[in-house]
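In this supplementary section we document a worked example of the pipeline. Step one takes a protein sequence of length 144 as its only input; no multiple sequence alignment statistics are reported here. Step two produces a three-dimensional model, which step three serialises into structure tokens for compact storage. The input and output of this example are shown verbatim.
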Amino acid sequence: MQELHGYYLEDLEIGQTASYAKTITEADVVLFAGITGDDNPVHINAEYAAQTMFEQRIVHGMFSAGLISAVLGTRMPGPGAIYIDQQLKFKAPVHIGDTVVASAKVLEIDEKRRRVKLETICKVGDKVVAEGVATNMVDRRPTE
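The serialised model returned by step three reads:
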């Protein structure tokens, strides 16, 4: 199963980065609402959303958080790492059709506890839509 493993603790360095991009579709929003049960009309009802400060439907904030999870779970640290916590601030709305780029950057490595702290940011173009800090537990490289 080694081929399915991501980075080991020894492979990571302060400043190392990874990212994941996704263009959000109508289907993504409807499926996310169905899966999570969050059917807030600001996400799924155009007439309702037109009367809000956003003037149109917006994508669930936690959808962006899910893209951060995609970076951490598939890119860096990747498979084998365990997502321990996430602090996150939503800064701007995301709309259907936007391409969200989620990125992670290694800030700290605690070798003793096998913890890696990462800056997490989601952007649409140059605009930050969500930002925060995550902690992952990362395996050490196995000894042979």
